[in-house]
Specification:
Strand order of the largest sheet: 1-2
Structural class: mainly alpha
Number of helices: 6
Strand content: under 5%
Distance between the termini: 62 Å
Order of helices and strands: HEEHHHHH
Oligomer: single chain
Radius of gyration: 32 Å
């Protein structure tokens, strides 16, 4: 019975290892947000070892010359009902566990986003306060109409540049988060589908084994069919995992595009404040170079 249970346990462990790989620990910071990374590889060897164990039973029966089933105590067919009961108990909660894991993952992503949003708002408030302080100093030193006009123009240009960059960053971030949400949902759907296929495969193997036992087929023959079903399940599980990982690869492309969009936005912002700085320096002189303009570096991803 231990060798048969190993088959079932191996399958459950594989699925649990695969589904557990998408917890928020797989989200690393990308600029001002996050992106999923790879899950641990499916350990198909567990199923292979389980199949080998069933194969050893078959070899023992072959040595005993089992052309037809021998109803010996503890044989495969004698334990079939117990095996099926344990198998169904192990796999019945897999779909629920996948859904529970996804809910936990989404919750952690939301917590991370809230923290990033709070930090961004804090940075923007600090930036605005710094800029207003610069403007106040400039107005104090504007002792001619030309300088006052230069300060007003400078304030208008920088304010517009800051607002434009903020709007752009917010839009880029929102689009990226939408892509992340879709990737997470698609990946979880793929994992859920893999669990469904695994469940159906195991159930089919169980039903066939029960039918064959009732028909008096040899234990060795039933074990061989069961082992082949497990092998097919392992191969399908590997295929489904690779399909789920392609979703993550697609998201990596979105993350790269996001970084490029942020870079382009930042470059445009820097160009605007540089022109404004040059104009205000022309009106006031080089002594205002350090105090007139907020640091462009402080505005990145804000």
């Amino acid at each position: 019975m231990r060798r048969i249970t190993t088959v079932v346990t191996g399958m459950v462990l594989v699925v649990m290892l695969m589904t557990a790989g998408t917890v928020f620990a797989v989200f690393h910071s990308v600029g001002s947000d996050s992106s999923p990374t790879a899950s641990p590889p499916v350990r198909g060897g567990i199923l292979k070892r389980a199949g080998d164990a069933v194969g050893k039973d078959k070899q023992q029966d072959d040595r005993q010359g089992t052309g037809v089933r021998a109803d010996k105590p503890g044989g495969f067919c004698a334990r079939i009902d117990e095996l099926i009961a344990k198998t169904e108990k192990e796999i019945s909660g897999l779909s629920g566990k996948v859904d529970t894991h996804r809910a936990e993952q989404v919750g952690k992503i939301e917590d991370h986003r809230q923290n990033r949003d709070l930090a961004r708002e804090k940075d923007r408030s600090r930036r605005d306060a710094t800029f207003l302080a610069h403007i106040a100093k400039l107005k104090e030193r504007a002792d001619t109409d030309a300088k006052k006009q230069a300060v007003a123009s400078y304030e208008q240009i920088i304010t517009a540049a800051l607002a434009g960059k903020q709007t752009s960053v917010d839009a880029i971030t929102a689009a990226y988060r939408t892509a992340v949400d879709k990737a997470v949902a698609d990946r979880q759907a793929a994992l859920r589908a893999a669990v469904s296929v695994l469940t159906a495969t195991v159930k089919t193997a169980e039903e066939k084994a029960r039918t064959d036992c009732a028909a008096g087929i040899a234990d060795a023959t039933i074990r061989t069919a069961f082992m082949q079903a497990i092998k097919a399940a392992r191969q399908r599980l590997t295929t489904d995992r690779k399909a789920a990982e392609r979703v993550r690869s697609a998201l990596a492309v979105v993350a790269t595009a996001r970084q490029q969009s942020l870079k382009t936005t930042d470059e445009g912002f820097r160009a605007s404040i540089e022109l404004a700085r040059q104009a205000i320096e022309a009106a006031f002189g080089k002594t205002l170079k350090k105090e007139a303009t907020p640091s462009a570096a402080d505005q990145t991803n804000q």
